[in-house]
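<context>
A single protein, sequence plus fold
<entry> Chain with its tokenised backbone below
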Amino acid sequence: MIKLSQAHILGTIIAYLLGIFIVPLVIYFSKKNHLIDVPNERKIHHGQISRLGGVAIWISVMLTFAFLVVLSYYPKGYGLSAIITGGSLMFLMGLIDDIYGLGPKFKLFIQIAIATVVILLGVRIEVLYNPFGANIDLGMLSYPVTLLWIVGITNAINFIDGIDGLAGSIISISAVAIGLISLVLAPAVPITALIAFILTGAVFAFLTFNYNPAKIFMGDSGALYAGFLLATLSITGVVKTSNDACMYLPILILIVPLMDLAFSSSRRLIKKESPFVADSEHIHHKLLHAGYSQDKLVLLLASFSMIGALLSIFAVTTRSKFIIIALGLVGVLLILNTVSKLIKKKDG
């Protein structure tokens, strides 16, 4: 038997090796069965590319987790069963959407239903840190706050999946940060860290075939699945285990997809459009239109994500609420300033 504390590196390696083997099989299956992503006016790729990358990611994560359970035991607590089940349901919905296509309202309804089940099973945000006094007990507001976080992050990851390598890079960086912080905080949540590191290994393998020019896309099945895992793991591993400003670190870790979600949703609502209908006006689209290549865009936005992750890890080791708040504000302002300058420079 292996101890849970010894499983993190092993889980990452196993998930990666499984992914390296499974992704080519998924590519072959997709092409044979015509499950490919055809270019259109909103998409920037050329050629017919598999859109079932989520299948490889989900299988790699689940097989790795099952293997480690056999080697050790099934860890209980911290909403693990809810996360595994809810993630699989989110993956299934995304897979159906990738193959048959689903309407945005129906997808949102299913997402809310899945999130509701997970919340009822104990994965919820119950308290918010208040730097000016006693912490805020959310009470009945716990459900809408948690629902907004889970559904919001799930869709935010899906929204940034627009250019080769971007979503996978940000998911990997975010998962590593959440996993490390879950181990540093007291009490540590090693099972959250384990799932986060397994996800990292699976997505690393996917990225091997997804960097420009991509041979496979993540699809809704992969983006929604990974987004759901990041949202729920950030609750069990960071928010619920901290009673100070550290509970807000997931916002800094996920700053890039969150800012894109805020921009895109605000823009669509102002235009009286659904915030869940896909378009080509996300941050990465705007920078592409401004003349930046896909490779440079991935490097730029992944660098912002890496900075947010590193600042979060630094902040949790210092345990200073003032440092955490200051770093978060500075990070947001720097990203806003840099992106706006880049767009203006190219437009000018």
Observations:
- DSSP finds 13 helices and four strands in the chain.
